[in-house]
Amino acid sequence: MALREILVAPDPRLKIKAQPVGRVDQSIRDLMDDMFETMYAANGIGLAAPQIGVSKRVIVMDLAREKEGAPPRPMRFVDPEIVWMSDERVPGEEGCLSVPEHYADVERAAKVRVRYRDENDEVQELDCEGLLSVCIQHEIDHLEGTLFVDHISSLKRSMILRKLQKAKRIKADA
Ligand code: NI
Q1: Ligand 1 centroid – CA 152 distance (Å)
Q2: Known catalytic residue at 139
């Protein structure tokens, strides 16, 4: 396992549509191990491979992190696709490890059904609601090169991206 660097917006690599994996082999399982280590170290609840500069359709999540002292509950999704979504939409506040320290309300489908391959290369389907639904839609967005700030007003988005760019310059100069 290895800790990877999380890309921070604005970064062109976060805007690339990721490639399908096809078959889940040991290299993909190793990638997911690195992603978990990186996500846990950053106190995140979800991470998509493009966020560490790997253009593959791979997601890891662990929503148990939301509850203090809860045992870890790692979830792995390869080549996930939304096969159904509810008409009902709900707003919720979102953040992202690639958009650090900024949060905004995003409206998403209340419920989705996701088809994906698991770590054993078996096709699975999962019905998602609540935080699970929000998180999986947010992470699948990453595979399309979409960030949560792409769902908010352009005014608010450019303000956030400008601040992140400025923080990068300050960090580079330090
Ligand atoms: Ni994110």
Answers
A1: 14
A2: yes
pTM over 0.85: yes
Query: Which of 37, 81, 139, 144 is the catalytic position?
Result: 139
The pLDDT tens digits for 41-80 are 999 999 999 999 999 999 999 998 767 777 889 999 999 9
Tokens 């489908």, located at residue: 109
Q: How many helices and strands (H and E) does the chain possess? A: 3, 7
Instruction: Measure Cα distances from 26 to 48, 73, 120, 121 in Å.
Output: 18, 21, 9, 10
Q: Tell me how far apart the alpha carbons of residues 14 and 78 are, in angstroms, rounded to a whole number.
A: 18
> How far from 24 is each of 28, 119, 143, CA to CA, in Å?
6, 6, 17
Q: How far apart are the CA of 146 and the centre of ligand 1, in A?
A: 9
The sign one gets for the Cα dihedral 112, 45, 12, 93 is positive
